UniProtKB/TrEMBL annotation:
Every AGC-kinase C-terminal domain range: 351-420
Binding-site residues, ATP: 97-105, 123, 453-461, 476
Protein's name according to its UniProt entry: Ribosomal protein S6 kinase
GO biological process, one term: intracellular signal transduction
Biased amino acid composition, Polar residues: 32-41
Catalytic activity, EC: 2.7.11.1
Reactions catalysed, as given in the entry: L-seryl-[protein] + ATP = O-phospho-L-seryl-[protein] + ADP + H(+); L-threonyl-[protein] + ATP = O-phospho-L-threonyl-[protein] + ADP + H(+)
Naturally occurring in which organism (per UniProt): Oncorhynchus mykiss (Rainbow trout)
Any Pfam family the entry gives: Pkinase_C
Top-level EC class: transferase
Cofactor(s) the protein requires to work: Mg(2+)
Compositionally biased spans, kind Basic and acidic residues: 42-55
InterPro entries per record: AGC-kinase_C (IPR000961), Kinase-like_dom_sf (IPR011009), Pkinase_C (IPR017892), Prot_kinase_dom (IPR000719), Protein_kinase_ATP_BS (IPR017441), Ribosomal_S6_kinase_II (IPR016239), RSK_N (IPR041906), Ser/Thr_kinase_AS (IPR008271)
Amino acid sequence: MEKDRRKFKVSRLLTLYLFKKHHNKALASISEPPTQIGHGTSTEKKTGNETDASHADSLNRTQWKEDDIIKEINITHVVKEGSEKADARQFELLKVLGQGSFGKVFLVRKVTPPDNNELYAMKVLRKATLKVRDRVRTKMERDILADVNHPFVVKLHYAFQTEGKLYLILDFLRGGDLFTRLSKEVMFTEEDVKFYLAELALGLDHLHGLGIIYRDLKPENILLDEEGHIKLTDFGLCKEAVDHEKKAYSFCGTVEYMAPEVVNRQGHIHSADWWSFGVLMFEMLTGSLPFQGKDRKETMNLILKARLGMPQFLSSEAQSLLRALFKRNPTNRLGSGADGAEEIKRHAFFSTIDWNKLFRREIHPPFKPAVARPDDTFYFDSEFTSRTPKDSPGVPPSAGAHQLFRGFSFVAPAMLEEEGSLEPAKPAPHPVVQQLHGKNLLFSDGYVLKEDIGMGSFSVCKRCVHKATNTEYAAKVIDKTMTDPSEEIEILLRYGQHPNIITLKDVYDNGKQVYLVTELMRGGELLDRILKQKFFSEREASSVLHTITKTVEYLHAQGVVHRDLKPSNILYVDELGNPESIRICDFGFAKQLRADNGLLMTPCYTANFVAPEVLKRQGYDEGCDVWSLGVLLYTTLAGFTPFANGPEDTPDEILSRIGSGHFTLTGGNWDGVSDAAKDLVSKMLHVDPHQRLTAMQVLKHPWIVQRDKLPNSQLQHQDAKLVKGAMAATYSALKSSQPTPELKPIESSFLAQRRVKKLPSTSL
């Protein structure tokens, strides 16, 4: 294997040398230099179309010469240890992830050892549709990916070809592309931007160290893995050079992200990537592009001439970094010096980043994609994922093209892309269902419904059995005419992997009802179990409250409030009754923190983005969650509820007691309960939600921290039926007093609408 790698390196160096030599010769042979836009002088003015045509002709001549040279080089195969050379038969097509002008990308599953059952993205290109220039780029992408091994760069696992197709097998990145997906859901803060830019800087630095200019840095080429870390992908426009002094002259990339020296064809080196880095930073922080005209020509002129207004709501460090990146003279641009990316890393904007921890992926991303299953494609366009994946026959290319792809094969994981006959997509009732099932939208196709196990305001919960595995689950059937389940689905997808939050297994939608398939709670309700226990002590109550509050604190830290934490929504997953088996369920009334434009806020939100009344409401809702936990704690300790004597109490009576904040902490069980418990209960049930303890403060209370010192004596309870009736009456009274807020769709926000629009590009 080492011998093969050495051959590969030698071949690549020879390729670079011959490419450099022939590239310079090709440039010298072009009689007329490219016309500059906005800067410099020219003896003859041309129209935009003439300029583009002249430049395109020059490019074509250059690329033909590049093709001639590459045909002479045979790159030795690189074979991953323990694997054999791959072919298309080793991969099962699951879904279409995307489609481009040259082919498609599929989600595939490996069906042969040693990595059988692994999921990959398979990029399939039809040779017959590739121009010579595109063939060069495809081979270049394969070569770069085979050479690069970095935590923030997508990994190539296999590459192979048939007579008519090229295959790249890459990491399957479940989060989709970062910016177009995230901008529809989450409002960026400077802390978020800092994290993503820092990972991006490390990835670019690694590529630059290998002599690679990325040249196509744009939102669509930055993907998220399942943990929320970024991966750079799509290397079809990258250039390699022996050192940073060698310039590339081709006009490539997406115009809005281009550096001035790329626009005016003065030649560019790695510093062009740092300009694009600044464009991404500006877009993430403001939601708009720094230079965007009504057409490509105007955009290019803005890049070359326009004075950029710096938004004053940005921090001084952020403004300073943007100014240092937006230097039209590349030699003055931050990152262009001898230290390269170290200049970026030393900037004050990144002062809080631990670069070693970041490289080791030890810093938690600000956003984790909502992925419930390994093959989820929630963050990919449903226009593609709803289609039936088909691998149509590839038409063989011209005879001369075969030489270009000598040595293309490579062994490791990948993506599949291809252009073939696809069935037209049909609209689905709900986007999540579209992603999970494509056209198979019937719940009855996968499950059999059984008896009722619970009732809600707008739903019924039933036991169900999965037909293929005979596994039992719970199915929450929601009436769509009464409520919009989108928020609940999003929250469960995003946070259902927490050990004490119910896990969402599947989603179906028949247009009238939505079916949420979850794990089956065999242990029943928490309060039922406590009231039926012969022995339940203060120490056990502390352990139970710790588990529940820790979960609630996690949700609050993510900007999520449950708003319906009644005991019937806290259940055990099994009959053992251990605190670890507790699950918080039913997120039908839950909310995620949103800004005024409807976008979700990440945990580290700032006053720049959140109106005071939004934060006030969020604090109120968090206080309601803590109050509900206080009611539960009071009931487990006292043996009866704090504000209702029984199910016959009227809502007005109950609300009056709640409003007065009066409850008793003497007599009965309270005479044997610790003072620490009474102190915690009184602070959790404080009538003013803003003076109430937060979930984090509850976790730090001595009654939680020092539970080993609590009494282990048995607590007495009222009749279980009476207690449950009083509890139900309490929450019924509360619900009747609160109007249901109107839900506004995320898609209505300005930023989401802007990102949905396809930006004009000059991708060649």
